[in-house]
TrEMBL record:
This is UDP-N-acetylglucosamine transferase subunit ALG14. The chain crosses the membrane at residues 6-25. Keywords: Endoplasmic reticulum, Membrane, Transmembrane, Transmembrane helix. The keyword Transmembrane applies.
Length: 95
């Protein structure tokens, strides 16, 4: 009797794993949702010590039309970061 229960449990487990595997194969690579035109307001915090360069590199790979408007924050004394942000924004307009 106990052997039959173990076999039934293992069969159910294998069946569940197989169903899950087939489900993953069916839906992998397909987008979860259709093309959304939703935009996202984006806050970009700039700073010293290489942080500005990291943020601008990250922004260069984002979809510009999806992540808009973009708001920049920098220290009042950090003119270099603000200048780099302006240059980047100007280059986005030209593209």
């Amino acid at each position: 009797m106990a052997f039959g229960s173990v076999v039934a449990a293992l069969t159910a487990l294998v069946l569940l794993i197989l169903i899950r595997f087939l489900y993953i194969l069916r839906w992998s690579g397909k987008p979860l949702h259709g093309k959304s035109r939703r935009t996202y307001s984006t806050l970009i915090v700039l700073g010293s010590g290489g942080h500005t360069a990291e943020m601008l590199n990250l922004l260069s790979v984002l979809q510009k039309d999806r992540f808009t408007p973009r708001f920049y924050i920098a220290a009042a004394t950090d003119n270099m970061s603000l200048q780099k942000a302006r240059v980047m924004e100007d280059s986005l307009i030209d593209v």
